Amino acid sequence: MDLIGGTFANPRHADGAIEDISPADLQHVIGNFPWALSQVDDAVAAAREGARAMSRMSPSERADLVRRIGGVLKAREDELARAIAVDIGKPLWEARTEAQACAAKATITADDGLRLVAPFPAPGQPGAECRFRPLGVLAVLGPFNFPVHLPNGHVLPALACGNSVVFKPSEVAPHAAEVYARCLVEAGVPAGAFNLVQGPGPVGAKLAAHPGVDGVLFTGSWSVGLAIERATHGQTKILALEMGGKNAALVLRDADLDKAAYDVLFSAFVSAGQRCTAASRLIVEGPPERADAMARRIAKLAEGLTIGHPLDAGVFMGPLASETALARFETGISLTRAETVLASRRLSPRGLRGCYVSPSVHRVRRPDGTAYEREELFGPDLAVFDAPDEDAAVAFANATEYGLAASVHTRSREAFERCLSRIECGVVNWNAPTVGASGRLPFGGLKRSGNHRPAGLHSTLYCTAPVAVMSGEAALDRGRLAPGVAWVDE
């Protein structure tokens, strides 16, 4: 269902319907979700009214609202986690982590995020200060890999700053989005302040380009982000775009190889490789034989990963999120000309017919710039390269049009700092996986990975506009007139 103006309802005249089938078995129909392009106009109109209601609330009232939302999200964590798991195939332990992050975001936003947009004076200039005003109506376009947590990371700051929201979730996860929307209604979000419109790409395209929308907050692929930029060309609305990565893990000569192997394994294959920060490239400093050994070590570990139904205990990897995602991944890895260390194959764990695939590892001895090496595959695959020295490893990490995440594995703080200063990414971790992020830090990337409006803690900054305020005297001081002005009394 859609949520428009505080009411859940299906479109009166639908243009189509999403049949939400779990990728875990391709048999369980979670629900049918009718959609209509006309709902976008209705949702934006409702959001215009909702924005006026939100702007009339005091900052403390909005912070309290966000905290209430966090309380409901916390109370309904298990329901949210199960909805995520069945919608996209994420293992339940991991879906629970996502649901827990939603509640935590409310606290971070109310306690820390709002401090970034608190009024502040201009030092040494009495009466001069900066205030922050809401933008108005913000469109949130959500991804499928974190169907609740990532949109929630836009929604809560938007509401906390006095905006209203129209949320268009991924058509892969409509059920999880509806469960999330019902949490917000239960928390008492004013009618029209938060609206939900279901549908495929054309619904999102119309929403992004709608003249009644003041900003677009998007997480997804580079190609869709580029389409949003083009669709909004000539409009002054703000765009906050997070668009994936081709992320590298660097293993330097002095690294603990067991620790590095585990971190890279986790980075590459958690969420079945469907994280924007997933490690898809491993760069090993040293002779080629060292990279060969790391590739074999990670491949052996990957062979032992438990793959199965997302609701089963002890499962590390579930299926890919949809048949479309599976087909795209298989096409992507078929483009490699690299040596196969571990081959990917379709799986049917315990007879399931879902979108299951095993991890793959490829050893690239002579990089040749194929699409496999350049583009984000969004699946469980790792390409392993060698680099003769640290400088070459950093240069190779930067040899991509993306710049989201990287990790550097070394015992040397000095070596890490050298790499940190040169790696062109928005997230650079030391002796840690590329995946995972702190909600108390900014999150975003460079180049094709983002447009310099990081989410995370800094989300409140793109949900507001700074306003400079200069205060003068209430009465005229005739002794302080500008040169050349002769005052004449009437």
Low-confidence stretches: none
Proportion of β residues?
15-25%
Number of strands: 25
**Helix content percent band:** 25-40%
Question: Which structural category fits the helices and strands?
Answer: alpha/beta
Instruction: Just give the CATH class of the largest domain.
Output: Alpha Beta
What would you call the shape? globular
What is the CATH superfamily label of the largest domain? Answer: Aldehyde Dehydrogenase, Chain A, domain 1
CATH topology of the largest domain: Aldehyde Dehydrogenase, Chain A, domain 1
**Cross-sheet strand order for the largest sheet:** 14-17-18-13-12-20-21
Number of helices: 15
Give a quick account of the main beta sheet: strands, pairing sense, barrel closure. Answer: 7 strands, mixed
Radius of gyration: 25 Å
Mean pLDDT: 97
Q: What is the second-level CATH architecture of the largest domain?
A: 3-Layer(aba) Sandwich
Distance between the termini: 67 Å
Number of domains: 2
In a few lines, what is going on in this structure?
The chain has two domains: 2-243 and 458-470, 3-Layer(aba) Sandwich (Aldehyde Dehydrogenase, Chain A, domain 1); 247-430, Aldehyde Dehydrogenase, Chain A, domain 2 (3-Layer(aba) Sandwich), CATH 3.40.309.10. The protein has helices at residues 38-56, 59-75, 77-88, 92-111, 149-160, 174-186, 201-209, 222-231, 257-269, 288-303, 323-334, 371-374, 390-398, 413-422, 459-462, and strands spanning 2-4, 7-9, 16-21, 29-35, 120-121, 128-134, 137-141, 164-168, 194-196, 215-219, 238-242, 247-251, 279-285, 339-342, 346-347, 356-357, 360-363, 381-387, 402-403, 405-409, 427-430, 442-443, 446-447, 455-456, 464-470. By secondary structure, the chain is α/β, with parallel strands linked by helices.
